[in-house]
Specification:
The chain is mainly alpha-helical. Helix content is about 70%, strand content about 5%. It has a three-stranded antiparallel beta sheet with strand order 1-3-2. Helix 4 runs antiparallel to helix 9.
Length: about 220
């Protein structure tokens, strides 16, 4: 009985965490929006505060929630410094992972993405496809500490894209060309060239993102 109660509590903690994180990443809870713990519990069918507080603690550790003394809970905002730091991390980790461990990526997946980049009209959600492509390039990284740090910024990247949806962040044709440069080098087992192409691709994305955040008001 105690084991079942323990599993139930763990399940509620996980459900609360996943529920809140999805809402935050999709910007249903907007950056800098204050949240009410009691209302959050009610939203989830009047769950107790224990699993909710556990979920909020995890989200605070991931940088998605800020707990302000005497003020309450706030969805973390995104600043110019956040965007700069996000790309600094990506530029440090992604090319390194590809250069060092790219040969472990299944070749058939590289071939599949190459075919897809030649036919972008087949892609339903280009942003998701772009995220999946970069995840593939990172998929063989064995260093759990680098991976943990990198995973923390993926949510920031998702929120930033949604928040800037009114501004075209991705030129599909240009992005496909840049992806193909990476893929062609990878399929030739030239991982240094592939990593250099990836670095150039990320630098262009960084410059565009930093330009966008200067001219629009994020919530």
């Amino acid at each position: 009985m105690k084991e079942m109660d323990s599993q139930s509590k763990l399940s509620l903690k996980l459900q609360a965490y996943q529920y809140l994180k999805t809402k935050i990443l999709n910007c249903e809870y907007r950056p800098n929006e204050f949240l009410n713990e009691q209302k959050l519990c009610a939203e989830m069918g009047n769950i107790s505060r224990t699993p909710m507080r556990d979920a909020l603690g995890r989200l605070e550790q991931e940088g998605l929630i800020t707990i302000l003394p005497k003020k309450g809970l706030m969805v973390s905002g995104i600043t110019e410094e956040d965007v700069h730091s996000m790309f600094e991390m990506r530029l440090l980790v992604e090319p390194y992972a590809l250069r060092t461990y790219g040969n472990l990526i299944p070749r058939e997946q590289l071939v599949a993405y190459t075919e897809l980049m030649h036919h972008p009209e087949r892609i339903d959600d280009f942003c998701k496809s772009d995220d999946d492509f970069h995840e593939l390039l990172m998929s063989s990284l064995p260093n759990k500490y680098l991976r943990s740090g990198y995973d923390r910024i993926t949510g920031l990247n998702t929120r930033f894209r949604i928040m800037t949806g009114k501004v075209s962040m991705i030129n599909q044709d240009q992005t496909c060309e840049e992806h193909l440069e990476i893929l062609n080098a990878a399929l030739s087992d030239n991982w240094n060239t592939a990593a250099d192409a990836l670095q150039h691709h990320l630098e262009l994305a960084r410059d565009k993102a930093e330009g966008v955040i200067k001219v629009i008001r994020l919530w």
